[in-house]
Amino acid sequence: MLSTEKQYVQWSENETSYQALWLSQSNHMPPARIALVDDKTTADDAYRLACEGTSLLWRGDFHNARQLLQALGRRIDRTNERSELRKIKKAANKSVTPKEIPNLFHQQRQLQAQRSRILSRLLLELDTGYISKLRRAPDMSVACTAAFGELDESCVLSFRDLQGALGAAQWREKGVPIKPLNVSVFPHYGVFAPTRHEYVQLLLDAPLPDVCGVAYDIGTGTGLLAIILAQRGVKQVIATDLNPQALACASDNFTRLELSSIQLQQADLYPTDAPLADLIVCNPPWLPAKPSSPLEYAVYDPNSKMLRGLLQGAKQHLAAHGELWLILSDLAEHLQLRTRDELLGWLADSGLVVKYRLDTKAKHSRSQDDTDPLFAARSTEVTSLWCLQSV
Ligand SMILES: C[S@@+](CC[C@H](N)C(=O)[O-])C[C@H]1O[C@@H](n2cnc3c(N)ncnc32)[C@H](O)[C@@H]1O
């Protein structure tokens, strides 16, 4: 999501001043200091400048910019190995005590944020229509327009954001196969990509309420949960999301699958002017921490705002004997960002009762990676479908 107010980057080149629109997907401010760099700039020099806070406007060959970015990444990793990360890894290798986990999580996020800040200092200028004048630059206009919208002026953006847009364009074209469903969904840029499928099986296994004419999918993302409900025969599904990119993406996926009965609404949680629901499903962002960029809003839910809002509003939106299916990983509990008692307290305050719970162990690659400093927490992650009933 772009910030709505336009901001410009200024720099001087050959004794002439230039400016271009600043595009930042992490909502970073326009850079105050810019150095021009090209194929002759060494990775060590670029790294030193980037660490000092100078942004690097690339003037060389397009593919060499990608190589420079990789070289910067290796230097950051080496420096981290020598300092903070080594401490973290050491902590990971001996068995981490529960007391150390919150601090490790915090340190890991700080390191990631710092890595992202340094790498985001390598910049590219694109002409109107996202055209690059760089040698060997590919045609990026379709991918950039899909990610950042139409643009009728030149812009400067980080090479990382550009790579994000190019990667998203590939996903959008190829799709993510959802094995248990035998369909693919096609994520758009900035929309949560359902690459973990454990919870899909939970949604297929849970018995539908006896009467299930109307269902809501709150925070629909690509539309995956709404698709599951429609495929299971629910006649009217109303899907909401706050993020307009998600709504456009879900709409595309419903059209591809010819699911014209699913309605979409941009809403903070619940739809307005909708009939009461026999079933509400929601897979909220699962970690109660501050997102460091708009792209992280699907994972991080500051102060569990969405989760608590969902639970507080459920009873008034449910028909008699209606059910809420809450999909929630317990990783936040293992990271000590939330306690089980806190969650049980919110469930009780919702005025609903727990009818049953289905659990599945995490199978995604991060939960299997024993070099991850937080392996102790990640390897024990369980995702649950909490079926709560209105009585
Ligand atoms: C973890 S993603 C889940 C997406 C999708 N339901 C799935 O399971 O693949 C969470 C979604 O909730 C959306 N979201 C976050 N806060 C919201 C709110 N207050 N109201 C509606 N949607 C919200 C995000 O934009 C994101 O698409």
Textual characterization of the structure:
It is a single chain. By secondary structure, this protein is an alpha/beta fold. It has 2 domains: 8-170, no CATH class; 175-390, Vaccinia Virus protein VP39 (Rossmann fold, 3-Layer(aba) Sandwich). 38% of the residues lie in helices and 23% in strands. It is built from 14 helices and 15 strands. The strands form 3 sheets. The protein has a 7-stranded mixed beta sheet, with helices on both faces. A hairpin with a 2-residue loop joins β1 and β2 (16-23). The model has no long low-confidence stretch (mean pLDDT 92). The structure holds S-adenosylmethionine (SAM). S-adenosylmethionine (SAM) binds at residues 192, 194, 218-222, 224-225, 240-243, 246, 268-269, 283-285, 297-298, 306. S-adenosylmethionine binds next to α8 and β10.
Q: How do the SSEs run, as a string of H and E?
A: EEEHEHHHEHEHEEHEHEHEEHEHHEHHE
Oligomer: single chain
CATH class of the largest domain: Alpha Beta
Q: Cofactors and ligands present? A: S-adenosylmethionine
- Main-sheet strand order equals 11-10-9-12-13-15-14
Overall geometry comes to globular
Q: Helix amount, in percent?
A: 25-40%
Number-wise, the strands total 15
Low-pLDDT residue spans: none
How many helical elements? 14
Strand content: 15-25%
Q: How does the helix and strand content classify structurally?
A: alpha/beta
Under CATH, the topology of the largest domain can be stated as Rossmann fold
